[in-house]
Amino acid sequence: MKSTRRKTLRDINTRSNLATEAAHPQRKFLRAASLELRRSLCNIVKKAAIDRAAEMDRQLVEIENEQVRVLCASESPSPRTRLAADAAGLPQQTAAARAGGFTMKY
Question: Is residue 45 part of a domain?
């Protein structure tokens, strides 16, 4: 007795292989349109990323300017401190000298 091979899904013939590109010209148009949409979406995302990077650069410059302003302001003694030091005959100290640093215990 000869055994017959069982048929699987791969053995079933369908009509899908009969469809050709010539039979469906709208598929080319849809494929091209979807590529155009993807390209425009990528351009929008790219522009948004560039804008975010530019905004971060602007904020960094602003932070550095503020930091310089604060450090310059802390280095020059205030008029009240200057008058008090003059009245007491004490030498003027900068903010860094007044702070004295800190020590860490391990």
Answer: yes
- Kindly list the distances between the CA atom of residue 24 and the CA atoms of 29, 34, 37, 50, in Å, as whole numbers in the listed order: 10, 16, 21, 40
Reported as a single tens digit per residue, the pLDDT across 46-73 is 999 999 999 999 999 999 999 988 888 7
Q: pLDDT, tens digit, for every residue of 13-51?
A: 777 666 666 677 788 889 999 999 999 999 999 999 999
Asked if residues 56 and 71 have their Cβ atoms less than 8 Å apart, the reply is no
Q: How many domains does the chain have?
A: 1
Residue 79 lies in a domain: no
The single-letter DSSP state of residue 104 is -
Q: What amino acid is encoded at 103 in this protein?
A: T
Residue for token digits 């971060």?
A: 56
Domain assignment of residue 95, yes or no:
no
Q: Provide the domain limits for residue 49.
A: 28-72
